[in-house]
## 1
Amino acid sequence: MQQRCEWCGDNPLYVKYHDQEWGVPVFNERKLFEMLTLEGAQAGLSWITVLKKRAQYKKAFDHFDPNKIVHYNKHKVESLLKDPGIIRNRLKIESTIGNARAWLELQQQKIKPVDYLWQFVEGEPIQNQWASLKQVPATTRQSEDMSKALKKRGFKFVGPTICYAFMQAVGMVNDHTTNCHRHSQLKP
């Protein structure tokens, strides 16, 4: 049996996410916006809750297309608040709309969101060497810098802890523990 990070457990949804997605470097704009949205939605909840609702999130939020989300109005927000397939929190839903606006403002300023986000790790995944989950930090200097920069640009639900979880998810850091089979697979 393959060794995995201890947070993964044996839930098939978690195992698939761990083995195929978590920590894999993402350079696709839509995917980065999706993960930023989902990490913000997770605030105060478990990641498995978000994973279980992910498919409905994609439908409800137009496959995370910021060009569509930016046009959501109060009627769309009310509709989303009634959707049991997503996390029905008004602040989180409204932050997704605001974040779409901030995302598009980056583009309007000729800033590529991919480059903007990856600058916090100098464009390359940080290769950590954690022996156990206890060693993995909740925040880092990079996640704090990302959080401050995103907040300054109008993003919400992007605190340092959320930013670090985002960085882990999209492969800006390799936080698979050294005993996990994915750790060495994700090294350059």
## 2
Amino acid sequence: MPSSGVYALYAVKYASHERTAASNFIDPPDPHEAMPIDYFVWAAVSDERTFVIDMGFTAKTADDRGRTLIRCPTEGLAAIGVDAATVKDVIVTHFHYDHIGNFDKFPAADFHLQDREMAFATGRHMLDPAHGSSMNVNDVVGMVRHVYGKRVVFHDGDAELAPGITLHHIGGHTAGLQIVTVMTARGLVVVASDACHLYANMETRNPFPVIFEKDKVLAGYDTLERLAPSPGHIVPGHDPQVMDRYPAVSEELEGIAVRLDVDPSE
């Protein structure tokens, strides 16, 4: 494993959804073009510490929302040697249903999140279906219970969690969306989560249509580019190209888990 402050970094695919470009852009060039998305969780692993980034959604949520669940995210993590039952730190990028589920499968973890995201997910904006429909109330309530259980670690803006792991508040998609920068053997890699759903969202400045504040989404693209050493060091949250651009962890994990600490193929 890498030395202190340098992490092996993985993306683990756990689900997919067939859709058209109309669901992926505010202003789709061709709204009828087939454009599926993938769903990921991420893990940063060193000798000293493991950080899981987001927890995906459950089988029930997949059924309720018409998504194709390939495997429980914790099964994908187990395949790369990360045992959800023993993970101490989970970074929750935001509270949308596909990022906050399965928290019960991390019984030893503290959950790192932004003050603004908890306020957003439990406040007046949830009365608006444009925002509330992307949340699962039971997941939000579960995280509130973890506040009272002293298992939530709140952050107000940018924060270094450990050498090589830093949170950056972005907002835009939700009020408290945060991204994660991870120091790896190839340099700093930016796990963008939903600050950039697809490579094309950022490249064309044509955002994903689920938005709280558009100006902050666009400013977030600038922040991603500022933090990353190159465009190839930014990993979007839902792009199937991630599985093509990065090498599989092993032949057995082809199509399941890729290495983000290795240079992409393009």
## 3
Amino acid sequence: MPQVDLTIASLILGASLLVKLVMLVLLVASLASWTLIFTKRRELRLAKREARVFEDQFRAADDLTALYNRVSSRRTPAEGLEKVFEAGFKEYARLHNRDTIDPASVLDGTQRAMRIGVSRQLEELEANLPTLATVGSVSPYIGLFGTVWGIMNSFQALGNVHQATLAMVAPGISEALVATAMGLFAAIPAVIAYNRFSSEIDRLYARYDIFVEEFSAILQRQAHP
């Protein structure tokens, strides 16, 4: 009896056209998700470091006007907490210079400006996360489709012979299971990364929210000495 080659490479190369297409889709999805994982990981790490640095500068600053001038005059645009602070202080200065607006309205307008800034920063941080969620949820089903198709082909081939042997069905079933394995390989890292990144973004949101409250308290003390 001739020996059946069941190596991964031979199973992929010997798979039917549709199963090869399924494997190609899963490979592209896996590469795309890994690219997003490394990009988002670097982006969140930078956002956390920038938030920590600016919090230290903000709490050590004796003059918030000087801090605002330094942030707004930078050559590179402000990001993260710097952007929130810049939006809040700019709105505060604009409203504070109007004599017809009471201090409570000034503070309320400043808080709204900072909340909008926080929402925009979080929107940028959450970009491409739905792609990871889609890869994590859809990839197993795509792999399962390839598996079902491969097994169907194997059983159809059995119907055309008088005597079935394991060597006849093993390659078809094996190539089908490779599609399932590739689906899981694409899905598992995407799901893990999505959950981890979502948790880190939630913590950053809490950090931004605390900063908004802290900055608002300082402005309120200045408005009511």
